[in-house]
Amino acid sequence: MKSSSFSILFIMKYIFILAVFIATPLFMTAQVGVGTTSPDPSAALHLETSTTVNQGLLIPRMTTSNRNTNILSPSVGILIFNTTDSEFQVSTANSGWVSLGTYATAATSTGTTTSTGKIGIGTSSPDPNSILDVSSTTKGVLFPHLGSNPANEAGMIYYNSTVNRVRGYNGTTWVNLN
Question: Among candidates 110, 113, 116, 142, which has minimal Cα distance to 131?
């Protein structure tokens, strides 16, 4: 009996230590690099791809109805790809949702919502309206740098180093976002 309780205690300690090591990176405020071991110091999130594999960042995709129903009281800066309008949209302080291609505005819904699987970088309490919340007052997000367009996937976004533009795929064509 003594050996059995020792084994259970040992397993519980092992699980606790493993959980701490897994959870700790989610609450760190240092730079996060994906595809790089040395993230740019000015970026909270730095995404990098190899020169032989063109990959971009896939932005959350949803319809206008999904956006208005599920993203209630959006935080300023939330970025989505609206599949109804085939455009990238960002939540702003004064104009609600703004199209990054045409700068047209749409009203925001209000209320609260819940989300599962939230990841916070630079925050221990990710915004409930996002699946990825990158928070910083001193750093930005560094998109993958590519010389040409990656695979055509609606909502994909990257920085084209050949034309020096942030580009996004709207489901039909690649468009310059800046």
Answer: 116
Residue 66: other Cβ atoms inside 10 A: 15
Task: Give the integer Cα–Cα distance in Å for 11 and 6.
Answer: 9
Query: Which domain range does residue 76 map to?
Result: 2-176
Residue 169: its pLDDT value, please?
Answer: 87
Q: Match 């915004």 to its residue by tokens.
A: 127
Q: Tokens 């084994």 map to which residue?
A: 7
Instruction: Round to whole Å and give the CA distance between 66 and 72.
Output: 10
- Sequential DSSP letters for 21-53: HHHGGGG--S-EEES-SS--TTEEEEE---SSS
Q: Is the pTM of this model over 0.70?
A: no
- The SS3 call for residue 78 is coil
Number of domains in the chain: 1
